[in-house]
Design brief:
6-stranded antiparallel sheet; alpha+beta; about 650 residues
């Protein structure tokens, strides 16, 4: 795990200028790689690579980067891990194509694979998380590549006469010619989703490379020229192909998932530094930890944090699971002030607007883990692959039933539900919890009632899904001069020519955008800010491809998601220890905005300030803030979007 940065100046450049620029860009990523740094330049081609290293595999100089292939043709700066690189080495050796290995790093393996098979075939063989830049001296071409699911980020675009790239936008911002303009379409998308969907960034002309793709630029590329990314693997194609290859035997499905996840965990435990896991006590993280502990001779180190607020505290659940599995469990209870102390750091950690409020506890648990380990496995992606969100459980059935109700009646009932203040709904549902069956128990019921009101007014299945995923239902009313454009995820879904089961359609859409652009980027930034590598076994290629063959009734059953994953977990942990309402990794944001964060929020949301900046409709923001403070509605997530955009603007765009 590392931070990469670099540039290409068509026509060439002097070595000292290249070195100085890439040194500044790389220094901006020091948090991602505190162990070492390296710079390489090729003056005649105008190419410069930099890297900050967090040493995980091959801690010796043989693992240092930027790294050259044995043949001298390729140079790479690489961020991430290729978990099956030993298998790739064995394949190269069997073919008589292995070099005299200098060390045992996966980067050296990748270079040999590219030399033998080319970029796309080498990527297709690689199972892991990565982003890299590759210089091909023979054809004089720069290649940028990203892993299948977008676990590792890479940004690129033109800054003056230079094509620049980096693991984070702050590396690009260190370039002396950096002078981008704000992309209001990206800001509009951010208000809808709480993140900026790929390929856009908050800056016009700067792009995120989409998952499962690579893009190439010739050394004589014209400044400001664009290149079209090429896909080397398609989740959409896998889902479509699996429609006629569903697994039918439940016993076989459970055994197969356990076997594949166990292999994935084993692959991802390859490390030359201390390793542990996040444990929330939920289905996904508990499954990963259970399979880790089953393979370990020593207790696995597990980490969780807790909050005093009962509705947001999963630490007790995690502790029970840890005790049952026998892990070396470390937990930290944090008070509201400790959590809120993270807020001023967020614009620097996330250097474009990002407003998933679980970014705060994620950073805190990463900080806790980093005191003890350098690598942590997580349970992310189980929801997207195996149907774990409320929308997966209820979405298809709701739309089928609502389709029989006249739209005027649905809108009328939706308006009534939307008018209910969140606190009474929470109180009523809390009183009913003891007599409700488990599948009907929900936490934060007031928010769910409001969401149901929006669902009732949605038109069609895609409209329903968009409603469920949107924080701002009408961001064009919020962003001044805003517009909504097609994202990479939207384009991928638009190319879908096969009718899918509603659950398959939702989980595919979630994997394209919410997983890649929110969940994985949240974890990457939160963890890398403290130099912690995180790994995601559920995103092992073989596990993902298997998930596409699992029918809907093995994902959602009896009003509960992730049925198949639960069956694997029940082999290791009693069901009664796991079966409880889904909490999510969240904070009491609604109460904080009315209490300890009120003054901070009021300052950022003041009408005079908003009018001066010209990003958001000040009257709309003021009305939403007033309704939230008066408890008429819970607008906490919507307000958090605006607050994170404002805080980001102060950090990165205030002088522009």
């Amino acid at each position: 795990m590392c931070g990469i940065a670099g540039l290409m100046r068509p026509g060439g450049a002097d070595e000292s200028g290249l070195s100085g620029t890439v040194a500044r860009m790389t220094a901006a990523l020091a948090h991602r790689g505190p162990d070492a740094s390296g710079i390489w330049t090729r003056a005649d081609a105008g190419v410069a690579f930099g890297q900050r290293r967090l040493a995980i595999l091959d801690l010796s100089e043989a693992g240092a980067q930027p790294m050259h292939s044995a043949c001298g043709r390729y140079t790479i700066t690489f961020n991430g891990e290729i978990y099956n690189h030993l298998d790739i080495r064995a394949e190269l050796e069997a073919a008589g194509a292995a070099p005299n290995w200098r060390g045992h790093s996966d980067t050296e393996t990748l270079l040999a694979a590219i030399r033998q098979w080319g970029v796309a075939p080498a990527l297709q063989r690689s199972i892991g998380m990565f982003a890299f830049a590759l210089w091909d001296a023979e054809v004089r071409q720069l290649v940028l590549a990203r892993d299948r699911f977008g676990e590792k980020p890479v940004y690129y675009g033109w800054s003056g006469a230079d094509l620049v790239f980096g693991s984070e936008l702050k590396a690009l911002a260190a370039h002396p010619a950096w002078a981008p303009s704000l992309d209001r379409a990206a800001l509009t998308a951010f208000m809808r989703y709480s993140y900026v969907p790929a390929p856009a960034t908050i800056w016009s002309g700067i792009r995120k490379l989409p998952p499962a793709s690579f893009v190439s630029f010739a050394a004589d590329a014209a400044p400001r020229s664009a290149a079209v990314p090429q896909s080397y693997w398609s989740l959409r194609d896998r889902v479509v192909a699996a429609q006629s290859a569903r697994i039918g035997n439940e016993t076989e499905a459970v055994a197969r998932l356990e076997q594949l996840l166990s292999v994935a965990v084993k692959r991802q435990c390859l490390s030359d530094v201390p390793l542990g896991a996040f444990l929330s006590g939920g289905v996904d993280s508990s499954t990963i930890v259970a399979l880790m502990q089953a393979q370990m001779s020593q207790p696995v180190r597990t980490f969780s944090i807790g909050f005093a607020e009962g509705g947001y505290n999963e630490a007790e659940d995690a502790r029970r699971v840890a005790q049952h599995l026998g892990t070396d469990h470390i937990e930290l209870y944090v008070d509201a002030q400790t959590a809120m102390d993270v807020i001023p750091k967020l614009p620097r950690i996330y250097d474009e607007p990002f407003a998933d409020s679980s970014q705060i506890p994620t950073h805190l648990v990463a900080q806790l883990a980093r005191r003890h380990v350098t690598v942590a496995l997580s349970g992310d992606a189980g929801d997207e692959l195996f149907g774990g969100y409320n929308r997966h459980v209820w979405g298809g059935a709701l739309q089928a039933r609502l389709g029989r109700v006249p739209m005027p009646l649905r809108r009328a009932v939706g308006a009534v539900l939307g008018a209910i203040a969140p606190e009474p709904a929470d109180t009523i549902l809390q009183l009913l919890q003891p007599v409700l069956p488990t599948r009907l128990k929900v936490r934060h019921a007031g928010d769910q009632v409001a969401k149901l009101g929006r669902i009732l007014a949605a038109d069609g299945f895609d409209g329903l899904y968009r409603t469920l995923c949107s924080i701002d239902q009408d961001p064009l009313r919020t962003v001044i001069g805003g517009e909504e454009t097609m994202s990479w995820a939207g384009a991928e879904m638009q190319q879908l020519r096969t009718q899918l089961d509603p659950l398959d359609r939702m989980t595919l859409a979630d994997s394209f955008s919410y997983l890649s652009d929110d969940i994985l980027q949240k974890v990457d930034r939160a963890a890398m800010a403290v130099a912690l590598e995180t790994r995601v076994p559920f995103l092992d290629k073989d596990v993902v491809e298997f998930s596409t063959t699992v029918p809907a009734n093995m994902k959602v059953r009896d009003g509960r998601g992730k049925w198949l994953v639960r069956q694997v977990l029940y082999r290791h942990v009693p069901a009664e220890m796991i079966d409880r309402p889904k909490t999510g990794f969240s904070i009491p944001l609604d109460a904080w905005l009315r209490g300890p964060l009120r003054a901070w929020a009021a300052d950022l949301l003041s009408p005079a300030r908003l009018k001066r900046q010209g990003l958001f409709d000040a009257a709309r923001v003021s009305r939403m803030f007033d309704e939230h403070l008066s408890r008429r509605h819970n607008h906490s997530y919507w307000l958090w979007n605006v607050l994170m955009a404002e805080a980001w603007h102060d950090e990165w765009a205030g002088a522009r």
